[in-house]
């Protein structure tokens, strides 16, 4: 977040390669912004999105579409309504200035787009269908009406809102992503953007049928995976994190075991090692990922994989092969 704040404050974000790459589409295409609409500051921040929208419109973007994901996890459930009202005010001002700026689609973060560690690709597909294809089971004239209506359903909450698209009077989606458009995923945190980034960027992507793959200019807010160089273009340069404790211990001969289930496996490996995939030294490290339950919400199966993690950890300790054992039991968080 600090890196993005600094780049916005200094204006460097507008001078760097990433923005100038997507800017090439402004003349004839639409700028699409996809991400978590929230002031939680964990994955994204509303004020940064506002500055990106404003800055892009001042630098030639004539048509802007937002594809929003509601939060309710890092912030209070129901706060989505206020965030939408805030951004809609900005978009209305831009429309007065002749910029065609609107919200085009949406959905709840845990049900649409923001899956992580390849736990459930159907989550990303729901987002793809709404954002790229302009197709969703729910259609509304505006986002405020969409969220208020969907939240009124029994057991509904911001995290799990179903996907929706905004349509015009004739029922046509106002903002599918098409050839010649530019796309920015505005989350700064990597873990819940990597899967969408793969779908947007990889030509040989096969995790679900994309139906239509538009020729776009795509940039992330930051680079989400340094090993995969994903995405290849980004608005803010990533920090180089060296000599993390994981690397330091391994280089000093300390043998390490790391284990969690899918939803937190990245926390004891990728994040722990400074946003770096893979081993530092396979002869001194062992990483064990236990597949998380998919297709069921964790509150319905709260035991999750705690026992399996505990068993593997017990075995690792008793094996005598390791000097450090690090695990993440995700139940309390999830």
TrEMBL record:
Pathway recorded for this protein: Carbohydrate degradation; glycolysis; pyruvate from D-glyceraldehyde 3-phosphate: step 3/5
Top-level EC class: isomerase
A Pfam family that the UniProt record links to this protein: iPGM_N
Entry keyword set: Glycolysis, Isomerase, Manganese, Metal-binding
GO molecular function: manganese ion binding; phosphoglycerate mutase activity
Domain BPG-independent PGAM N-terminal: 4-225
Single biological process term from Gene Ontology: stomatal movement
InterPro entries documented for this protein: Alkaline_phosphatase_core_sf, BPG-indep_PGM_N, PGAM_B_sf, Pgm_bpd_ind
GO CC list: cytoplasm
Family: Belongs to the BPG-independent phosphoglycerate mutase family.
PANTHER family (alphabetical): 2,3-BISPHOSPHOGLYCERATE-INDEPENDENT PHOSPHOGLYCERATE MUTASE (PTHR31637), 2,3-BISPHOSPHOGLYCERATE-INDEPENDENT PHOSPHOGLYCERATE MUTASE 1 (PTHR31637:SF7)
Protein name per its UniProtKB record: phosphoglycerate mutase (2,3-diphosphoglycerate-independent)
């Amino acid at each position: 977040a600090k890196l993005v704040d600094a780049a916005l404050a200094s204006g460097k974000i507008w001078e760097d390669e990433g923005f100038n790459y997507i800017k090439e589409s402004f003349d004839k295409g639409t700028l699409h912004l996809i991400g978590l609409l929230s002031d939680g500051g964990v994955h994204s921040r509303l004020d940064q999105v506002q500055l990106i929208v404003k800055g892009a419109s001042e630098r030639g973007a004539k048509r802007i579409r937002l594809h929003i994901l509601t939060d309710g996890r890092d912030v209070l459930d129901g706060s989505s309504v206020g965030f939408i009202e805030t951004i809609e005010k900005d978009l209305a001002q831009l429309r007065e200035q002749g910029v065609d700026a609107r919200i085009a689609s949406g959905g709840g973060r845990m049900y649409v787009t923001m899956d992580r560690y390849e736990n459930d690709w159907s989550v990303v597909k729901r987002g793809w269908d709404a954002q790229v294809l302009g197709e969703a089971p729910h259609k509304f004239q505006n986002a405020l009406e969409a969220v208020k209506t969907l939240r009124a359903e029994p057991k509904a909450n911001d995290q799990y809102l179903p996907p929706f698209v905004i349509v015009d009077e004739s029922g046509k989606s106002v903002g599918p992503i098409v050839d010649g458009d530019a796309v920015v995923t505005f989350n700064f945190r990597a873990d819940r953007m990597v899967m969408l980034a793969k779908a947007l960027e990889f030509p040989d992507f096969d995790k679900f049928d994309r139906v239509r793959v538009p020729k776009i200019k795509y940039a992330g807010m930051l680079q989400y995976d340094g090993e995969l160089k994903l995405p290849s273009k980004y608005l803010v340069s990533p920090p180089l994190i060296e000599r993390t404790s994981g690397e330091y211990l391994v280089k000093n001969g300390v043998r390490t075991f790391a284990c969690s289930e899918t939803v937190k496996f990245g926390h004891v490996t990728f994040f722990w090692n400074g946003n770096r995939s893979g081993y530092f030294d396979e002869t001194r490290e062992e990483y064990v990922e236990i597949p998380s339950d998919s297709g069921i919400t964790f509150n319905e199966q709260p035991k999750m994989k705690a026992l399996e993690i505990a068993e593997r950890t017990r075995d690792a300790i008793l094996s005598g092969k390791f000097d450090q054992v690090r695990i993440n039991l995700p139940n309390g968080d999830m």
